[in-house]
Design brief:
470 residues, mainly alpha, Growth Hormone, Chain: A, 3 domains, 80% helix, globular
Length: 470
């Protein structure tokens, strides 16, 4: 269907069963992503309970985050071998098993090992779920269905810290793992009954060397990038980045030479997919970089308490939650390129507003800026994911979903690292509010430049859609 047809045609209706399947996938993704932040506030109490140092306890969070990213590329081969639905169910069971083992751990190293394995299984859930929904929904409904999954991925980490504090106020830290069990059980039995049974495809021989390359390369690169500026790391930062990059390059070269690799990187020969991948990478860097930067205006410039600052950040989450379903609906009707461009313009307006913000700007205006930012990021992210999934053949979706997820996570790591480095490097002790605001605004300019690149990339999709319409 051409772009002009999309604009005039009614949206393809979504059957009730498809909405139900999307909700089941959302519950699995929510459980996995919720666990990514729930442990952050509990690390001091865990360290005290298991008689270890805070630096070692930090690996409970770091290990999960790194293994979550490492599990993503493996999902492509496993989806072809087992089928995405079977992979999703197995991953969910493993996630619950390792959650139980984490809750029952009596020593810190046992907890870290189980937490890493929990992250690996959790890293399979999101791309496997997106593969299921993409195949079940089809290209005419995909935007709306993907947007529902996206809400869980964005909202769950935000709720994790709040829910963790509530649990720890009356219960011990193992309950942060036990909470995964009822959520996972509901998702598992519902998925067993209602998720579609998708046929498996030819997976090819498993590439153990390539697997070891990507399994080690992605975590090492992310660990090194996110540790920039931190001199207390056990592994030298430069060494981690270089080794990680070399291993990823080795994986790319090896994958391109194999007929059936773990991850089909020949998809980048598709121009639309390549642009969608670039936008996902930039979107991850911009979105997560901004999530790190925006609270600093409230705490460092305005000297607000963490509770007050979290209340003012909430409109950003609301804007994102509102934007996701809108983005899905508009993508299905008008195509991805125009909506990504629109989202980029909205993000630009929000960032430009921050350039003119002052120390005593009204909180209502600040909250509105944050809401607009959340709305813009949603409008730019959902269409990119949808474009990347709909432009490939159905049998290539098991590869496209992990690639887009992996690039978004690497982009997020780089974005947070660069923002942290530039902000903290120029923020010296003793600066007054006015000078701190100048440092904040200088970093905002970097985000604006990144958004400009995103806008230029989205124009490629707009031109392609216009060409297809003629």
């Amino acid at each position: 269907m051409t772009s002009s047809d999309k604009q005039s045609a009614k949206l393809a209706p979504i059957p009730f069963i498809l909405w139900g399947q999307a909700i089941i996938i959302v519950l699995g993704a929510f459980t996995s992503m919720l666990s990514s932040t729930m442990l952050n506030t509990a690390l001091p109490s865990i360290a005290a309970s298991l008689h270890t140092s805070s630096s070692i306890a930090q690996w409970i969070a770091t290990g999960y985050f790194l293994s979550l990213a490492a599990g993503v590329p493996l999902s492509a081969w496993l989806s072809r071998k087992l089928g995405p639905t079977k992979l999703w169910l197995i991953s969910l069971v493993l996630f619950m098993v390792f959650s139980i083992l984490c809750a029952e751990s009596k020593g810190i190293y046992m907890l870290i090992i189980c937490r890493v394995l929990q992250g690996l299984s959790g890293g399979l859930l999101v791309p496997a779920g997106q593969t299921i929904t993409s195949i079940a929904a089809g290209p005419k409904r995909l935007g709306r269905v993907v947007s529902i999954v996206g809400i869980a991925v964005v909202v769950a980490p935000t709720l994790g810290t709040t829910l963790s504090s509530a649990i720890l106020s009356s219960l011990s830290w193992p309950w942060l793992f036990w909470i995964n069990i009822p959520l996972g059980m509901v998702a598992f039995f519902a998925g067993l009954k209602w998720l579609p049974k998708i046929e498996v495809s030819e997976a090819g021989k498993f590439d153990w060397i390539g697997f070891l390359f990507i399994l080690s390369g992605v975590p090492l690169l992310i660990y090194g990038v996110t540790s920039i500026g931190n001199t207390a790391n056990a592994v030298p930062i430069g060494t981690s980045i270089i080794i990680g990059a070399v291993l990823i390059i080795g994986f790319v070269v090896r994958s391109l030479r194999r007929e059936k690799p773990i991850l089909q990187l020949r998809l980048f020969g598709n121009r639309v997919f390549s642009v969608a991948a670039v936008v996902m990478f930039l979107g991850g860097a911009i979105n997560f970089g901004a999530q790190l930067l925006l609270p600093h205006y409230l705490t460092d410039v305005r000297h607000l308490s963490l509770i007050t600052a979290s209340q003012l950040i909430l409109p950003q989450v609301i804007g994102t939650a509102v934007g996701f379903p809108l983005a899905g609906r508009f993508t299905d009707r008008y195509g991805a390129g125009r909506l990504i461009f629109t989202g980029g313009i909205i993000m630009t307006i929000s960032m430009l507003s921050l350039i003119f913000i002052e120390v005593n700007t009204g909180t209502t205006w600040v909250a509105l800026i944050f809401f607009i930012w959340g709305l813009g990021t949603a409008l730019a992210t959902v269409p990119a994911m949808t474009a990347g999934l709909t432009t490939v053949a159905p049998d290539q979706i098991p590869d496209s979903a992990p690639i887009l997820n992996m690039l978004q996570r690497i982009g997020a790591s780089i974005g947070t690292a660069v923002i942290t480095l530039l902000y903290t490097k120029n923020l010296t002790s003793g600066l007054d509010q006015a000078h701190t605001l100048v440092v904040f605004k200088n970093v905002v300019w970097l985000l604006l430049g990144s958004i400009l690149v995103l806008l230029i990339s989205s124009l490629t999709l707009v031109l392609r859609e216009n060409k297809n319409a003629r």
